[in-house]
């Protein structure tokens, strides 16, 4: 799989083992995202989940929840997914996809049965959350999964400073790489494994892209940075709106021709225009205004001509100008 890249977004994953966390200090140390443990098995809820989920999100990090899978059957996996959803859905502002942490095989299952368990959990998670989850696993453990699991994004654990994770049957690239447990493996771009705001060790992760890429993939629409092309489009739209306002900003003393009521009302029914003025008369949205604004193309002119003789006559008068 690919290695780490300078400029990639940095993150952590936490549970109750990290104790109390000062999330503002975490955010100030260059950390962009955080995965927070929510549940394990069918009954265990991490006691710090709600506090950590809220703290990370309020500090401006992209936060997500993960579940440690213990199921040994597809039915149990679905129950675990339901428990995970019941817990994680109580937290607001979780923008990262939910995560299935599958890194042990307590039932000594065959690979086929492990894949059945994984699929059951992942499919139930999709049904409940409405988004595709991420699969977290270890570098060697990843080879238990077949290509039917490969459509899900991979969060891989390999504590190594320079050697990237191995290719697996289902994946040849990672979306997130857990490259350190805080005591071994790689380091943050600063050269340290310590994260401000956390006493002791914490797992370190890297996203396969920049902070901007991460926001574009998972952030809220208003959080996503606007591209230069989008900025140009917004400026052009503003200019068009300003020009249009010069045509449609008629004073309240002006009375439109009588023929406009029939034609504009019909246009509303057809869905071509959607509003009239507050008196119920089409004083602002009229054929005259549409024409002045350059919106009466050949198709629309043909449309209006079909209403009545008066409407047709009015249109023809406009076209003579």
TrEMBL record:
GO terms for molecular function: lysozyme activity. SUPFAM superfamilies: (Trans)glycosidases. It comes from the Bacteria. Keywords: Glycosidase, Hydrolase. InterPro entries: GH (IPR017853), Glyco_hydro_25 (IPR002053), Glyco_hydro_25_AS (IPR008270), Glyco_hydro_fam25_subgr (IPR018077). SMART domains: Glyco_25. Gene3D superfamilies: Glycosidases. Pfam families: Glyco_hydro_25. It catalyses: Hydrolysis of (1->4)-beta-linkages between N-acetylmuramic acid and N-acetyl-D-glucosamine residues in a peptidoglycan and between N-acetyl-D-glucosamine residues in chitodextrins. Its EC number is 3.2.1.17. One of its GO terms (biological process) is peptidoglycan catabolic process. Belongs to the glycosyl hydrolase 25 family. This is Lysozyme. It comes from Paenibacillus catalpae. The lineage of its organism: Bacteria, Bacillati, Bacillota, Bacilli, Bacillales.
